[in-house]
Amino acid sequence: MAVVAIEKYEFSPADSQEKFNGNQVLYIGWEDHLMFCAPFAFAFPPTMIFKEILDKVIPDAFGYHPETSKIDWSQAEWFKSGKSWKPDVNKSLVENGLKHKDVLRFKTPGLKGIKGSCS
Amino acid sequence: MQIDLRTVSIKPLRYTFDHIAKRIGADKPASRYLEGTMDIQAVTNFHYRPLWDPKHTIFDTSRTAIKMKDWYALKDPRQFYYGTYTMARARMQEAADSNFDFVEDRGLADKFPAAAAKLALEVLLPLRHLEWGGNMNNMYICAYGYGTAITQPCNYQAMDHLGMAQYITRLGLVLGKDDSLQIAKSAWLDGAMWQELRHYIEDTFVMKDWFELFVANNLVLDGLLYPLVYQHIDKVLDDLGGPAVSLMTQFQSEWFVESVKWVDACIKVSVAESDENKAQLSAWAKAWRDRAIKTLLPLAKHALGTDAESIMESVVGEFNSRAAKLGLVL
Amino acid sequence: MDMRVKKKLGIKERYTVMTRDLGWETTFQPMDDVFPYDKFEGIKIHDWDKWEDPFRLTMDAYWKYQAEKERKLYAIIDAFNQNNGHLGVTDARYINTLKLFLTGVSPLEYMAHRGFAHTGRQMRGVGPRVACQMQSLDEIRHIQTQIHSISNYNKYYNGFHDFTHMHSRLWYLSVPRSFFDDAITAGPFEYMVAIGFAFEYVLTNLLFVPFVSGAAYNGDMAATTFGFSAQSDEARHMTLGLECIKFMLEQDPDNLPIVQRWIDKWTWRGIRVLMLVGTMMDYMLPKRVMSWKEAWEIYFEQNGGALFNDLARYGIKVPKCAEQAGIDKEHITHQTWAALYQYGAATDFHTWIPNPEELDWLSAKYPNTFDKYYRPRLEHWAEEAKKGNRFYTKTLPQLCQVCQVPMFFTEPDDPTKISYRESDFKEEKYHFCSDPCKEIFDHEPEKYVQAWLPTHQVFQGNCFTEEADPAAPGFDPLAELLKYYHFNNGRDNMDFEGSEDQKNFAAWRNESVKN
Amino acid sequence: MSNVFIAFQTNEESRCIIDAIIQDNPNATINEQPAMIKIDVPDSLTIKRSTVEEKMGRAFDLQELQIHLITISGHLDESDEEFTLSWKQ
Questions:
Q1: Do B54 and A3 touch (CB under 8 A)?
Q2: What is the ipTM of this complex?
């Protein structure tokens, strides 16, 4: 459907990629760990190697959780826009096909949050 | 346990909100007028453009040609916020109410000479529609103007015009017959005496620049019409039939004296802001004044007869000197 | 002298000559130019005279009664301030509800004032125009009485000091802000449905009645008085909103689908904003009157149910989102408080973990959800805080493109899964917290692509002061963001425990009970 | 059948108004909350000027209700003599 306005009503999106100073936005959520209330948002250089997310970004952003140190990345399952997805950790975001404002979720089998409550 | 909190003397951490302190200094409490007015309109980070006006943001300085470094310079000398406004009007309303009661209880309307009553009804009743026009225009400024300092009193001004339209209506019900209001409405729509005035006000209804509207309605039209009607024509009616009508229009007379203070303050400050403002405001005031004089003349002639021209001249003279004091060049 | 035998007019006739009889059909300018905005939305009005005036107040009566209300209100505010009434509230945590109110709700009253000025100028019928104008006037009353009541709190407590600045900038305040920006930028009829009906009629009781009753329960007479006093105007506003709906539906059957869509949209938009109020009720009032869930059941399910039963004769259905809201009522306040708690370094009020008694109250009020899903994380945080490891998230959250709430809502059928929705529009991806928000976007994408989403604005570099230099070594984005917000870092924000507010309140109150 | 309701701030004048409501609406349910009173009535509720005047011992204009009202639910019909809230049909 299109908006009903009194005259032409068209504006460029407020958040198109060129406005992010060379970065692209990526959202990352950790399944079954709702202690982090919502998926986090990041602005990354498109050339950033995916592994950096595992090595630095996630430990930093999710580090408060007692289970963060128990993550076994070889077991982790990834989802992009809800569909099963596999990163090549040695390639860049772009090479992994990640686009501006993509959303990733990861699931860490065996880890079920505080007292198993998915917190 | 009853705690006697009064006995505690504690030093406040701050006297007022930061945006007020920025204007008046942080070392003293601020008035309720200032706290309830200054900077309370959003100025940035608007989310969406209006579907009804995509060329502007929600509040947009470009809706007028007038430019101000600080729109909150247009303060209201009456310091009206809602509480002081309604209390001021409630006092006037009480006086008006007892005037109407007085007129009705003493049967003054019935004693009013027929010729004078006829003139009063002819001259005053169609003005209830003009008041309604003043209401619409001030709502327009309130909606699309910039900064609460000016938009807030325009809401009050609009409601005042509605109130006065209702007082005139009430006068019609007291002084007239069942069909008086209808006759007056027909005159407003078709009577020769009123068409220029109606044309004037209808043209202001489609005006886009809200500050020009302020000039055309609040400064010029009110500035000429109220003295003409509520001083000069009122005097004629008083001479013809005694004070009954004056009692029922006292609200308008008092209101005009008060509202002039506010209108003048707004014009004066915006004229003083820059030469561009001064030139623009002067041009608007001159053009609308010239037109308003013409539109009011038939009304003046009808009510004042041979004195009309000289009285109009004095009304315009007073208006011109008022305008000059505000820095307008007409 | 002829004897004038005049009939005495009843209230309805009298009101007619005092209002709609004032208007006229313009001839020097076409009516469509005088009222340029009331047709483009597609609402068909054949006869404006069919409008039924709700409350018939002429201006003289309005001035009289409103002035009387104002005199009473300001007398109470003055007395409350002179007596240091703020020290009589249950405990200093209560004051944080007022911070949320002043920065989140009061500026919406202002927007309502301007919005009704707009419809009060643009509706072609005189009847609705006068009613809108009066509401515009009432709404400036509301923001001012709120500022004036809360002004004294600002003198003694942190977080209030720059509320208008914060309202346009703070991350979580873009939720209420975008709600009203959305309404006022809609056409005049949609605005009437959004604010006049969905908010004022369907939802306003959820804002004022439980909250203000809560203020009374917690000893805040100033807030109680402005709240109830404002609410007395609300009764008039509610009748306006309801009349507007009936009028549109009676004018033309083609209006029904448009009105229904607006009711669906705005009920949902309103519910998303009200989660802040629900959170105040469940978490921030030291003494609680009722839970959000109970308030929802009374004021939405029962009263709203009666309303929608009544509107069924026009073909109006209960908004689709009501079903999801009925599930969400068990969750949203816990989810919201958890979010505010972890982003507590960037809120202008204090946050805390409820004490054990309060946790038990929540368990009792939310037997299906609280212990199972929410208590574990709160208790974990409390333990960590005791160890000096209070939880503050520094990473920004993903936001819903429409309601702008961080994406913390869960799937209606699974409270352990975040609800993710997305749409593509002109090569861009957009994310939503729920089906209703996605539907709202899909219907008017051109509008919502403009949204000023705080997270993205920070990334774009638009939320720093002019002096900030993101390229400088050691640039601390959070600290710079707080400067942009005009925070007194460490005083306005962070945990209640250890805050200046807590210490001052305790010291002042202690002083007041000693000789 | 649905309830209509009305709520008032608790004070001396509203006490009289509430007495009048109870007298004229036998099905009314009273619900007291901090600083307010809510009255629910099935289908329809009427406030009669004459009854309020009797309770107050003075002349009363129904528009004075404005001062004490907190909220209402139902369609409103207002005349000089009666203030009625109802769900139609």
A1: no
A2: 0.94
Cβ distance A22 to A45 under 8 Å?
A: yes
**Nearest by CB: C310 against D34, D78, D87:** D87
pTM of the model: 0.96
Q: What is the largest CA-CA distance in chain B?
A: 81
What total number of domains does chain A contain?
Answer: 1
Q: What is the CATH number of the domain that holds D30?
A: 3.90.56.10
- Contact list in B for residue A9 (CB cut-off 8 A) is 49, 51, 54
Report how far apart, in Å, the C-alpha atoms of C157 and of each of C82, C346, C353 are: 16, 17, 20
User: Would you tell me which residues 494-513 of chain C have a C-beta closer than 8 angstroms to some C-beta of chain B?
Assistant: 504, 508-509, 511-513
CA quadruple B25, B26, B32, B34: dihedral positive or negative? positive
Q: Which string of DSSP letters, residue by residue, matches C410-471?
A: EETTEEEEE--EEEEETTEEEEESSHHHHHHHHH-HHHHTT---HHHHHHTT-SS-TT--TT
The reply to whether A7 falls in a domain is: no
Domains and CATH numbers, chain B: 79-325 (1.10.620.20)
Question: Which residue in D65, D13, B82, B163 sits closest to C67, CA to CA?
Answer: B82
Is C136 within 8 Å of B41 when comparing Cβ atoms? no
The domain containing residue A83 runs over which residues?
22-116
B contacts of C501 (beta carbons < 8 Å): none
Query: CA-nearest residue of chain B to A5?
Result: B51
Interface C–D counts its CB contacts (< 8 A) at 96
Convert the pLDDT of each residue in D20-75 to its tens digit.
999 999 999 999 887 889 999 999 999 999 999 999 999 999 999 988 888 888 98
Of B138-142, C120-124, C194-198, C220-224, the least confident: C220-224
Q: What percent of chain B has pLDDT above 70?
A: 98
The phi and psi torsions of D30 (rounded to 5 degrees) equal -100, 135
Distance from CA of C478 to the nearest CA of A (A): 14
B226 at C interface, C-beta within 8 A = no
In a domain, A2, yes or no: no
- Across C203-221, average pLDDT: 84
Residue with tokens 């945590």: C93
- Range of C337's domain? 58-510
Report how many domains make up chain D. 1
